[in-house]
């Protein structure tokens, strides 16, 4: 696994807040207006790691301007848009705090809950505190249905250890961060990978707000692809599905064979044309599905073997004199756009 050469732990930083950003120029002023007072009020030594995921608007310029009056703000710029999970990985790998909270820039997840997460982790000696969406009434009905279907499917395919309605708003201890960094390179879907660690965890519930500005970076296409990556990356259930489809096709074809023999014995072979076409189409569809599932797994193996970096860090304001580095988790980037 490739590690950041500038990565280090500094005891002076107690809390890191990692925020992946992609074209968030409209939401940035509101984010800073709410986040900074919350963090200042904690009295903790903190840093805000803003990861600019190849934005094409003024997000990067605004962040650099904010650093003039906000010394705790740290800007990590990626050379190109690499996706939400890749940007989150870049921030978590470079976070220096004893605890690290991850937060999206759209303020749908309230930063005011971060001190509560920190207090819960300390009081109960927890390594992970999940932000759980207890109320999603501000989301559209379609969004609530698709999100509910996603978590329902993940809990049944991957395991019940996956918290329902827990996205990427969470707090991790330094121990949990180091465990994540020590894992072999793979497509990182943190909402599944973090629960898989099995560290002591707790939950903080909150009301999910509407996006403060801009537009969602997770349209239907990316949500579907995220679900595909989640299932294939954490379960062999699709391969078993291929086996069951093959078994079903065998029995269907056996039934068609018995019907064909019966018709032949009766001396009426003309009706067999319809059953033949149905059998051919059914078997062809099952074969294509099975080949597609196998191709998804083989593609991930091929990508992992290549060990091609998923993102490049162009600049980190905390290590301004260090060379740009490539830190990677090989794997498909589709569906993981910021």
Primary descriptors:
338 residues, alpha/beta, Spore Coat Polysaccharide Biosynthesis Protein SpsA, Chain A, 2 domains, 9-stranded mixed beta sheet, disordered N terminus, Nucleotide-diphossugar_trans, transferase
Q: How is the topology of this model organized?
A:
Layout: E1 15-21, H1 28-42, E2 46-52, H2 59-66, E3 73-78, H3 84-94, E4 99-102, H4 114-123, E5 128-135, H5 141-157, E6 166-173, H6 174-182, H7 190-197, E7 201-207, H8 220-234, H9 237-265, H10 272-306, E8 311-316, E9 325-327
Parallel strand pairs: 1-2, 1-4, 2-3, 5-7
Antiparallel strand pairs: 3-8, 4-6, 5-6, 8-9
Describe this structure in words.
This protein is of the alpha/beta class and 338 residues long. It has 2 domains: 15-235 and 307-327, Spore Coat Polysaccharide Biosynthesis Protein SpsA, Chain A, CATH 3.90.550; 237-305. Helix content is 46%, strand content 17%. A 9-stranded mixed sheet has the order 7-5-6-4-1-2-3-8-9, with helices on both faces. The longest helix has 35 residues, at 272-306. Keywords: Glycosyltransferase, Membrane, Transferase, Transmembrane, Transmembrane helix. It is found in: Membrane. Belongs to the glycosyltransferase 2 family. The chain crosses the membrane at residues 248-267, 273-298.
